[in-house]
């Protein structure tokens, strides 16, 4: 408008507009002065620019798309999966896969591949979260197989820490199933000392075991002439109302 003048109070805002919407080179102002005079406004601009979505064509991190990862696991495209995981923490992705309620069979497949090919140790808590998801899906045979390998390969985790991880799930029924299969795995692999400790620990936590796990444990203890421990197991079975079988 003719006769309109810009006041001093308007000069900073006008200058900010000129930077955000630059004029042709002939009339472009020197920005260095603005940086010196208005450093706080410049930091605001930088935050705005950094928060703006990335341009089209930039790759999305695999942890942002569980469906893509699940598809690669299902089709067993391990080389492609390895490429997607090069900038991602595998343990964080494993946590996300379990939390997303993905098919536990796929989570188990990813876990197995992770240990064999990435030389990465998964935390005990995440390991038993996987077993909880398998138990909720009634994949009992896979839990037995998993725990058998877990014990046979010489897990260096204490029975106390294992039961603490089991207890992280509030479902006592599911916890009892896992604890029962753990005792069975110890007994079948001649880890009678750990099996006996697991039997006692299950009683402390209130997890109900079965005669199917107690029988192999009693056999393992008998082979070591641990008669007092066998008697203890038998009495505890009666006290905990574990239904005995003919062998017991």
TrEMBL record:
<dbReference type="InterPro" id="IPR002885">
    <property type="entry name" value="PPR_rpt"/>
</dbReference>
<dbReference type="InterPro" id="IPR011990">
    <property type="entry name" value="TPR-like_helical_dom_sf"/>
</dbReference>
<protein>
    <submittedName>
        <fullName>Pentatricopeptide repeat-containing protein</fullName>
    </submittedName>
</protein>
<keyword id="KW-0677">Repeat</keyword>
């Amino acid at each position: 408008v003719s006769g309109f003048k810009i006041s001093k109070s308007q000069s900073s805002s006008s200058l900010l507009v000129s930077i955000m919407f630059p004029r042709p080179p002939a009339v472009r102002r020197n920005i260095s002065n603005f940086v010196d005079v208005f450093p706080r406004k410049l930091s605001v601009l930088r935050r705005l620019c950094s928060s703006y979505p990335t341009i089209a064509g930039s790759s999305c991190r695999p942890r942002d798309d569980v469906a893509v990862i699940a598809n690669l696991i299902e089709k067993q495209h391990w080389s492609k999966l390895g490429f997607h995981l090069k900038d991602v923490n595998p343990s964080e992705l494993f946590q996300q896969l379990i939390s997303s309620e993905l098919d536990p069979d796929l989570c188990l497949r990813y876990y197995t591949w992770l240990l064999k090919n990435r030389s990465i140790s998964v935390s005990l808590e995440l390991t038993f979260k996987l077993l909880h998801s398998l138990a909720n899906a009634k994949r009992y045979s896979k839990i037995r197989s998993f725990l058998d390998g877990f014990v046979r390969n010489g897990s260096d985790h204490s029975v106390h820490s294992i039961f603490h991880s089991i207890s992280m799930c509030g479902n006592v029924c599911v916890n009892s199933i896992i604890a029962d299969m753990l005792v069975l795995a110890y007994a079948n692999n001649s880890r009678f000392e750990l099996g006996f400790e697991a039997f006692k620990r299950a009683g402390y936590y209130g997890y109900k075991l079965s005669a199917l796990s107690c029988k192999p444990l009693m056999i393992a203890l008998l082979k070591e002439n641990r008669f007092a421990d066998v008697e203890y197991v038998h009495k505890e079975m009666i006290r905990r109302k574990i239904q005995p079988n003919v062998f017991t």
